[in-house]
């Protein structure tokens, strides 16, 4: 039985204050201490409700964490929390919700099930990101979805050298290249034509973006391998950028290597509705539906 929970959320979501108060009320009725991230507390206008305490954001004192927002905010919350191993309940205030399954209207019933230990906890493995370029000093050390190298908007195609466990795969002329976790396989990787991999699998995916060669295809790798990528300048105007989880961008330095491997520790996620993972394929990706099918057909 859990005795405390943490609350973090995307303050840009208009439903956030009301949802936080609803969770706070549930905590008060069940004698559970609620910790709210210090940066959110004054913005939520919670007043002097005694069942809330302020935390500096590391949530070490909490038994589990509620992350209130969309999938994008969940990526941000995971990177900030890692490597703390408390379970996370993503609550979907966004539009897609591939990872954040629980809806605001379900929060009371979901929390009751969590308190009764009746909700499955799954493990998701992150990508560990290392670099040898000075421009990456402040880059995140982990990514939940993907690590990307992509040409600048004004650039020609770029040349990316890829190695696995120190063995060169080759040099790929392309618009960019995505290294994805299993969780991130339904993000940029999917848009680039990469495979969908179940998010609980310990694997990585390399997917070229618009490669200028027919032989460059996505590759799925096991968890014990390490990937190295670096830009090789063959012509002028081959400027490139690195990106982590679509949120943090840096200029690439030609010849400087970025190493990506599977992180040692997973994150733990409450998954109240495992079947909804496949429901998302039907609803959002329209699997098995005629192009003329309407949402009512779901």
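-> sequence recovered:
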């Amino acid at each position: 039985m859990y005795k405390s929970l943490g609350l973090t959320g995307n303050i840009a979501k208009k439903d956030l204050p009301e949802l936080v108060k609803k969770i706070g009320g549930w905590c008060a009725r069940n004698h559970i201490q609620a910790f709210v991230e210090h940066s959110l507390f004054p913005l939520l206008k919670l007043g002097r409700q005694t069942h809330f305490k302020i935390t500096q954001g590391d949530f070490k004192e909490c038994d589990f964490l509620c992350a209130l927002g969309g999938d994008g905010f969940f990526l941000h919350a995971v990177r900030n929390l890692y490597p703390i191993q408390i379970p996370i309940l993503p609550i979907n205030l966004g539009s897609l919700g591939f990872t954040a399954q629980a809806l605001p209207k379900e929060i009371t019933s979901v929390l009751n099930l969590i308190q009764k230990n009746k909700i499955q906890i799954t493990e998701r493995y992150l990508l560990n990101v290392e670099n040898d370029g000075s421009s990456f000093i402040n880059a995140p050390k982990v990514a939940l979805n993907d690590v990307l190298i992509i040409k600048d908007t004004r650039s020609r195609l770029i040349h990316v050298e890829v190695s696995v466990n120190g063995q060169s795969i080759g040099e790929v002329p392309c618009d960019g290249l995505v290294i994805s976790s299993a969780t991130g396989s339904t993000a940029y990787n999917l848009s680039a034509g990469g495979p969908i991999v179940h998010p609980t699998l310990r694997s990585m995916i390399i997917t070229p973006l618009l490669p200028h060669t027919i032989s460059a295809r996505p590759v799925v790798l096991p968890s014990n391998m390490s990937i190295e990528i670096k830009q090789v300048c063959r012509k002028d105007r081959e400027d490139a950028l690195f990106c982590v989880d679509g949120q943090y961008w840096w200029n690439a330095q030609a010849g400087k290597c970025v190493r990506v491997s599977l992180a040692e520790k997973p994150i733990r996620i409450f998954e109240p509705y495992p079947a909804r993972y496949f429901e998302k394929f039907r609803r959002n990706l329209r699997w098995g539906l005629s192009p003329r099918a309407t949402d009512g057909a779901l």
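The mean pLDDT is 86.
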